[in-house]
Amino acid sequence: MKPRIWLTRPTAQAAKTQLAFENLGFKVLSVPVLEITPVDTSAAVQAIRQRILDFDRYDMAIFVSQNAVHYGCAWLDQFWPQLPTACQFFAIGSATREALLDAGLPVVGAMAVSEAMNSESLLATEQMAQVRDQRILIFRGEGGRTHLGDSLQARGAQVDYCELYRRALPSAAEQAVAQALSEGDAWLSVHSGESLQNVVSLLQASKPTSPPDAWLSWPLLVPGQRVGELAAQMGFSQILVAENATDSAMCEALEKQLVQNN
């Protein structure tokens, strides 16, 4: 019988990952615990508009995710048919880099696929070493990590945020978790710390398994050491730490564990 694995990515981003997991021999259960929606309050929209109107004042623009590229480039296209030539574009992660390139933007400072592809990796690049007096705009979602911006400010940069989207718990998440639990033991996968926190909250609120919290002993796949440490603090006992959140890295970690199990 095929091992089951929960895929907790937002539905719109899950298709390629599902296929990759299925190619490893898993039965993939769709349990999205995040959904991405554009900000829509008048204050949030006006804040974005002001950042975009001032875009020619920035020396660097950093995009933290594919969602940041999707929403950010839509705003830039609306107000800047010809982008300022002085601004340098940076991406966190290969998928974000590819999204920027697809949008026709010249990217510098994007990490290679083999690297961790997080804020810490970008901060370690040569381009981020000397940023004193540089104006930097970070495209991200609401309430993202502040480590990148705080670190750049500590190095003397002036940092602003353009918060384009919000992450929310899908209305159907509780039902999806209940359905997946009814199929029995499984592997778990998350692509961010927020996804991990959401899936744990949903599991804790669900009807108890037998024994209660049995899912803490299920194999859990996480993207990177930071999320792995969070999982350990939550009590998970089988944590598979992928090098990053790309499908190739996540599948490599899964495959290694499958080989060990056999």
TrEMBL record:
Lyase as a keyword of this entry, yes or no, is: yes
Reaction catalysis annotation: hydroxymethylbilane = uroporphyrinogen III + H2O
Tell me a Gene Ontology molecular-function term this record carries. Answer: uroporphyrinogen-III synthase activity
InterPro entries in the cross-refs:
4pyrrol_syn_uPrphyn_synt_sf (IPR036108), 4pyrrol_synth_uPrphyn_synth (IPR003754), UROS/Hem4 (IPR039793)
Q: In which pathway does it act?
A: Porphyrin-containing compound metabolism; protoporphyrin-IX biosynthesis; coproporphyrinogen-III from 5-aminolevulinate: step 3/4
Keywords for the protein's UniProt record, in alphabetical order:
Lyase, Porphyrin biosynthesis
Q: What is its EC number?
A: 4.2.1.75
Q: Which residues form the Tetrapyrrole biosynthesis uroporphyrinogen III synthase domain?
A: 19-251
Has the keyword Transcription been applied to this entry?
no
- Which Gene3D superfamilies does the record cross-reference, listed alphabetically? 3.40.50.10090
- Function of the molecule: Catalyzes cyclization of the linear tetrapyrrole, hydroxymethylbilane, to the macrocyclic uroporphyrinogen III.
Q: Which family does it belong to?
A: Belongs to the uroporphyrinogen-III synthase family.
Could you identify this protein by its name?
Answer: Uroporphyrinogen-III synthase
